[in-house]
């Protein structure tokens, strides 16, 4: 190519680019333009082409820039969007034309690729123009400011503009940041600096936090909507800095609204908002943690300094637990269980709880109170476990865990020895929790105490069995054994001295009969366990004495020391203090304390001091004591409390636990700590041999932290003591000895007198077996109980002794008066409930529910109290005679006398149904009161009676059915289907909420079935087939939401869905038939299959969104499509043509492989519905062969992907021939590339030719028939320079019907045209003879010859003579058209 030719070619390209800029690209031949660009680059004119394109684009963009400059500001963004879209489109077209230059010249000389070059020119000439750049930035910032003020802006336009700036950032240039982002961030910073300062000065902390949260959320949404993602992190950091970092201390410490105020006022949502915001700037959270710790410490100090709480350990620990629960809620809900806040909470509690040792002592007392009575009201093990876990939570904060252990051992020992613990299982659970916290060693003694109690029970069983046996009893009984000692019920707990707390008590002199029992037990025990020694510990013992007082009989519960004192008065009417001391040998302090408790306490003044001044409280040796002759007490069983020890005594004994409030470490704990420190020092030094002092202190502290926090001074002192002992390892040998620490004396006869028993007795005598209860005594006892029950009904229970009442009921049952007691209670309760029923009858209707609630609560409370009194009767008499338990009996009487009274029952049902009707009308009702009434009916359903169902539920369901029958009929007659569905959905939701709020859960299924029946099942066919709003109409109008609602409702009655599926299938089949019968679509296979795919997409969406991908609806969709697509074989043929169109041009516009795969998957979706898949295969092979032979396929990769999908659907055999066709084509391309045949040319006939050879006739569609026909005998007169040959023993046969030449003609057309290189005119007969093109079975010669002279756009030849006849005849003459003209360089001549 010479320079002139290159300039001419470039002018052609320049003109084409100008046409592209003018939107006249449709008249261009891009193949011709590509060839021109290819020739320029190939002949070394790449520089000319590259620079020329650069100049043309630059000139065009100057005009574009001027239009943007002259554009008004309010239209600039729209104008830029239009020009940018046009520029990108034109640059894509130019890039396609210059693709060869991009791949070769640009790469070789390291130029900027054409597309990027176009972007750079746009950046320089348009967006980078000073006036455009300034106006663009101003407009963007103004729009953002307007949006911040709450105005509406065009986000799509802003998004397009920012995307333009991002895309212009090519070749290392960040246009988005330089031209917009930096200025945007500066403007945003200035805006938020001013706004945050103004807002914090005028608003409280919570409002400021909401504003900050809103602004941060807005900025995040702004980036997501139309800014670039790279701005997200920067704008978030900016907002965090201006809204949080700058003001966080001011916010936290703001008066009356800051962090401390939020903690005080339980502002959980505000604290959560603060935490979420401040988490964005982590260092700010430290200040919140500090404030939280200060608030906790202040609240803790208030508890510690509160005189009321300090006096009461239970209140003290309850306050601590409430404080812990409060701040736990903050940490959990507000601070999202942050580890840092959990640590801060722990540190705060540790700081104020460990000021002294009171917390450890009080915690033990709290646990003691819980195990004595606090856990009684807990019905489930889960509640007990929660209560114990709360204790362990506080325990974890204690540093002086050894102090807690000391007190806990003392209190546990008392509970075990007195049998006052609510639950042994709970006790073991508590020890298990302590063990998991502090290890086995911490709880070894506590576990040993339980083991001792279990062994003691076994020993006592063996002891009693040994004396129960007649032979053993006679052998062991001594002559001196009195009858009095044999009547004593002795219970001994044998305790291991190393496990139990406290020093050993001093022995005392037992009463003779008690001494006999003790000696007998010692003999028995030591006979079984040789080598052990027993020490009696009377200070831990208890005794029950039967006392015949001068005016009444009582059972006294006293300590062992008190028992020793009182037993002396069986032999002496008067004794001096000195005599008591000599005869009992009780230590003086204990004697004085126990004696004071017997005559000082006015409620248990068993003894009196003779001839003494009333003011005189101190006891002297000569003071005389006697039994109180005027003693009276209504209680049968009296517990004589002990006088507390004096503070001096408590201190001397090492804080025994009787008192509270000491902040010092108990002396016993101090002593134990010394030993522990020495033991750890020795252990560490034995393992380390040599260690520096500071390191040793640290090691010892680390080892002991789990028990207490040792001071360095203590460690130093103990080290010095060890040094004084010359570092000898001191071992403490502890000899385990069994010791007897507790004595229980119980009389065998548990009978006690009633409140009216005032038989005079001169002194307390030893308890003996009493006489059986007579009828008179039983009536008197029952009268006492009847009076007590009456008092309970009158709410005067506070004056009653429930222990005494229990004992009376116990005695009645024990003495065979259970029937009297049971019938009597039944009658008393019935009489009371008759009065209650009358009050309910007389109550106004609007107050009846409240009155019933009050009476029902009262009745349950009284029956619980009566049940507790009659617990022994429930366990024995009721079980034995199969009676109804007391509590259930009370419910049954209430059911018969009150709720079952005809007038009450009728009024109650009417009121409840009226309330429900009112609620259905939208009125407000008292749901809590209704819930209480329903619960009452449910609870009354005892002994197989379902009161709730009989008295309410059945009537409620009938009433509801009638209501919904009328409402649904009326609503369906007046409203369209969609409104009816909404109404039904609302009503069903209301009924579900009604059951959840105040009806019983058993009603849920019934009311749901009723609603389903009345709202859906009765009317479903009417709804589905409703004209202009039914199911078919919804499908036609794409009412996805309404169909979804219908599906969800109808799913409640599955049988109704069959009708919906049937309608869907009918709609699909009808739509399919419309497509099949549409003449326009039938003519165009692409439109036909596109319509089918649209229909499939539409109903796929219904199945997915409305019918939740139901398998039944998926099957219905499949059956519907199969039914109308397989009416004939057209669908298979049209689908193949559609695929052919896609591969020729349809896939061109798809930018990604995912889009291509989606398009192919749609084809396979329709393919699955075909039954005649072999028909599709036949057409597909023909179309595939044409695409491969003509090179018209868009993508070979897509072709292979399609074949792969067909293979996965139908197997390898189905696609084996299809897979063979591309491989054959590839092989032939390699062969033909070695030698290309050249043809001479004339005037308009282009100079290249290709034919097709086939070696696999069975693979290619239609090849076999062509080989056996005339096509194999074509006389190729043109000098092709090639010949048929044998390759790999395969015969190659020319197949001209599949060939093409570069004029874009068929091979037959090429054979005809090449004749005109030899002479100017040819007759039809000569052409047939010279080319030998077949005329049978199809006249290929006539068809191809006509295409060369009939088509006006490609009229290469002309027929001489009569031009009116289109059909050629034998003598018709043809010549090359001398008038032929075309603007296109490359022309395709259609056959």
Automatic annotation (TrEMBL):
SUPFAM superfamilies for this protein: Cullin homology domain, Cullin repeat-like, Winged helix' DNA-binding domain
Matching InterPro entries: Cullin (IPR045093), Cullin-like_AB (IPR059120), Cullin_homology (IPR016158), Cullin_homology_sf (IPR036317), Cullin_N (IPR001373), Cullin_neddylation_domain (IPR019559), Cullin_repeat-like_dom_sf (IPR016159), WH-like_DNA-bd_sf (IPR036388)
Domain Cullin family profile intervals: 358-599, 1130-1346
Superkingdom of origin organism: Eukaryota
Annotated Pfam families: Cullin, Cullin_AB, Cullin_Nedd8
Family: Belongs to the cullin family.
PANTHER family with a match to the protein in the record: CULLIN (PTHR11932)
The protein's name in its UniProt record: Cullin family profile domain-containing protein
Species, as recorded: Durusdinium trenchii
């Amino acid at each position: 190519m010479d320079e002139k030719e290159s300039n001419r070619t470039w002018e052609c390209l320049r003109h084409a680019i100008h046409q592209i800029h003018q939107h006249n690209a449709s008249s261009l031949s891009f193949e011709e333009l590509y060839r021109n660009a290819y020739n320029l680059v190939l002949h070394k004119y790449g520089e000319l082409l590259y620079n020329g394109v650069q100049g043309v684009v630059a000139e065009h963009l100057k005009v574009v820039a001027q239009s943007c400059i002259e554009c008004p500001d309010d239209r600039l963004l729209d104008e830029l969007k239009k020009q940018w879209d046009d520029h990108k489109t034109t640059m894509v077209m130019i890039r396609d034309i210059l693709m060869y230059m991009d791949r070769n010249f640009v790469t070789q000389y390291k130029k900027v690729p054409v597309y990027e070059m176009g972007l750079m020119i746009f950046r320089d000439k348009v967006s980078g123009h000073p006036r455009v750049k300034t106006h663009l930035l101003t407009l963007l910032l103004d729009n953002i400011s307007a949006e911040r003020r709450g105005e509406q802006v065009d986000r799509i336009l802003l998004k397009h503009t920012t995307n333009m700036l991002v895309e212009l950032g090519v070749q290392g240039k960040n246009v988005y940041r330089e031209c917009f982002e930096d200025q945007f961030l500066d403007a945003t910073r200035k805006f938020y600096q001013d706004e945050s300062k103004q807002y914090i000065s005028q608003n409280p902390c919570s409002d400021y936090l909401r504003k900050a949260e809103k602004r941060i959320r807005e900025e995040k949404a702004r980036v997501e909507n139309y800014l670039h993602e790279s701005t997200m992190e920067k704008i978030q950091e900016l907002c965090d800095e201006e809204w949080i970092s700058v003001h966080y201390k001011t916010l936290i410490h703001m008066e009356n609204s800051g962090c401390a105020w939020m903690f005080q006022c339980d502002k959980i949502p505000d604290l959560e908002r603060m935490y979420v915001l401040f988490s964005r700037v982590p260092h700010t959270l430290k200040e919140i943690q500090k404030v939280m710790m200060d608030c906790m410490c202040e609240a803790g100090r208030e508890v510690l300094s509160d005189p009321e709480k300090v006096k009461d350990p239970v209140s003290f620990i309850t306050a601590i637990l409430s404080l812990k629960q409060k701040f736990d809620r903050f940490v959990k809900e507000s601070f999202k269980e942050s580890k840092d806040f959990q640590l801060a909470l722990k540190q705060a509690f540790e700081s104020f709880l460990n000021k002294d040792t009171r917390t450890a002592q009080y915690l033990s007392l709290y646990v003691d109170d819980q195990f004595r009575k606090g856990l009684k009201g807990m019905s489930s093990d889960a509640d007990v476990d929660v209560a114990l876990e709360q204790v362990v939570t506080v325990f974890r904060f204690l540093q002086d865990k050894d102090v807690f252990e000391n007190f806990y051992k003392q209190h546990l020992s008392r509970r075990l020895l007195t049998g006052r613990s609510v639950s042994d299982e709970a006790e073991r659970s508590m020890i298990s929790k302590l063990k998991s916290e502090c290890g086995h060693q911490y709880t070894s003694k506590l576990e040993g105490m339980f083991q001792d109690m279990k062994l003691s029970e076994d020993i006592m069983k063996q002891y009693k069995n040994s004396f129960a046996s007649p032979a053993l009893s006679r052998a062991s009984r001594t002559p001196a054994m009195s009858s009095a000692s044999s009547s004593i019920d002795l219970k001994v707990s044998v305790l291991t001295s190393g496990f139990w707390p406290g020093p050993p008590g001093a022995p005392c002199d037992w009463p003779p009969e008690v001494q006999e029992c003790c000696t007998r037990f010692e003999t028995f025990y030591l006979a079984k366990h040789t080598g052990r020694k027993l020490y009696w510990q009377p200070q831990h013992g208890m005794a029950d004495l039967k006392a015949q007082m001068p005016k009444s009989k009582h059972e006294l519960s006293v300590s062992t020391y008190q028992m020793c004192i009182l037993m002396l008065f069986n032999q002496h009417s008067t004794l001096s203090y000195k005599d008591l001391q000599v005869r009992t040998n009780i230590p003086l302090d204990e004697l004085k304390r126990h004696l004071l408790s017997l005559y000082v306490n006015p409620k248990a003044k068993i003894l009196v001091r003779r001839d003494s001044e009333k003011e005189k409280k101190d006891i002297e040796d000569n003071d005389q004591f006697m039994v109180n002759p005027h003693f009276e007490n209504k209680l049968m069983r009296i517990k004589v409390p002990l006088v507390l020890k004096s503070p001096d005594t408590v201190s001397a004994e090492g804080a025994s636990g009787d008192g509270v409030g000491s902040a010092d470490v108990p002396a016993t704990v101090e002593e134990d700590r010394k030993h522990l420190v020495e033991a750890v020092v020795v252990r560490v030094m034995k393992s380390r041999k040599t260690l520096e002092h500071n390191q040793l202190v640290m090691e010892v502290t680390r080892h002991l932290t789990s028990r207490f926090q040792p001071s360095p001074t203590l460690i130093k002192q103990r080290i010095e003591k060890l040094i004084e002992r010359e570092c000898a390892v001191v071992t403490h040998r502890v000899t385990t000895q069994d010791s007897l620490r507790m004595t229980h004396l119980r009389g065998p006869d548990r009978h006690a007198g009633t409140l009216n028993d005032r038989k005079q007795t001169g002194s307390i005598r030893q308890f003996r077996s009493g006489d059986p209860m007579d009828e008179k005594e039983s009536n008197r006892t029952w009268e006492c109980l009847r009076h007590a029950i009456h008092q309970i009904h009158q709410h005067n229970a506070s004056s009653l002794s429930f222990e005494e009442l229990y004992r009376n009921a116990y005695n009645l049952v024990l003495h065979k008066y259970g029937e009297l007691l049971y019938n009597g209670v039944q009658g008393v309760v019935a009489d009371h409930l008759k009065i209650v029923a009358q009050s309910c009858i007389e109550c106004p209707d609007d107050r009846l529910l409240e009155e019933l609630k009050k009476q029902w609560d009262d009745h349950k409370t009284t029956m619980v109290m009566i049940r507790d009194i009659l617990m022994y009767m429930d366990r024995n008499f009721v079980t034995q005679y199969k009676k109804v338990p007391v509590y259930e009996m009370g419910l049954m009487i209430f059911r018969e006398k009150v709720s079952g009274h005809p007038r009450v029952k009728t009024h109650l049902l009417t009121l409840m149904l009226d309330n429900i009707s009112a609620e259905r009308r939208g009125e407000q009702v008292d749901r809590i009161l209704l819930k209480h009434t329903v619960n009452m009916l449910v609870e009354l359903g005892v002994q197989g009676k379902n009161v709730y169902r009989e008295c309410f539920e059945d009537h409620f369901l009938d009433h509801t059915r009638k209501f919904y029958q009328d409402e649904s009929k009326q609503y369906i007659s007046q409203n369209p289907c969609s409104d009816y569905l909404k109404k039904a959905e609302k009503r069903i939701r209301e009924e579900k909420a009604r059951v959840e709020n105040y009806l019983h859960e058993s009603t849920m299924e019934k009311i749901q079935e009723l609603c389903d029946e009345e709202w859906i099942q009765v009317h479903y066919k009417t709804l589905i087939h409703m004209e202009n709003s039914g199911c078919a109409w919804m499908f036609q109008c794409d009412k996805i939401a309404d169909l979804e609602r219908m599906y969800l409702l109808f799913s409640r009655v599955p049988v109704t869905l069959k009708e919906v599926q049937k309608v869907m299938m009918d709609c699909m089949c009808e739509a399919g038939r419309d497509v099949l019968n549409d003449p326009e679509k039938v003519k165009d296979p692409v439109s036909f299959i596109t319509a089918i795919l649209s229909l499939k997409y539409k109903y796929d969406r219904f199945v997915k969104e409305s019918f939740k991908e139901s398998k039944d609806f998926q099957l219905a969709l499949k059956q519907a499509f199969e039914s109308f697509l397989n009416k004939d074989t057209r669908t298979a043929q049209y689908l193949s043509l559609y695929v052919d169109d896609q591969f020729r041009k349809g896939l061109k516009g798809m930018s990604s492989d995912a889009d291509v795969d989606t398009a192919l998957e749609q084809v396979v979706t329709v393919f699955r519905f075909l039954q005649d898949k072999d028909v599709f295969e036949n057409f597909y092979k023909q179309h595939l062969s044409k695409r491969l032979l003509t090179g018209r396929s868009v993508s070979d990769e897509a072709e292979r992907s399609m074949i792969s999908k067909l293979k996965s659907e139908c197997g390898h055999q189905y696609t084996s021939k299809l897979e063979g066709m591309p491989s054959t084509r590839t092989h032939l391309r390699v062969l033909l590339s070695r030698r290309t045949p050249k043809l001479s040319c004339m005037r308009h006939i282009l100079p290249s030719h290709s034919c097709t050879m086939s070696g696999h006739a069975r693979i290619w569609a239609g090849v076999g028939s062509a080989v056996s026909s005339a096509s194999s005998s074509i006389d190729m007169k043109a000098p092709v320079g090639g010949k048929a040959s044998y390759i790999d023993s395969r015969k190659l046969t020319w197949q001209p019907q599949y060939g093409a030449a570069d004029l874009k003609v068929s091979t037959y057309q090429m054979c005809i045209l090449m004749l005109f290189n030899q002479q100017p005119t040819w007759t039809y007969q000569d052409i047939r003879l010279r080319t030998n093109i077949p005329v049978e079975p199809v006249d290929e010669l006539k068809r191809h010859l006509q295409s060369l002279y009939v088509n006006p756009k490609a009229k290469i030849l002309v027929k001489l003579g009569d031009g009116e006849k289109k059909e050629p005849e034998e003598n018709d003459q043809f010549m090359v058209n001398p008038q032929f003209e075309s603007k296109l360089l490359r022309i395709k001549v259609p056959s």
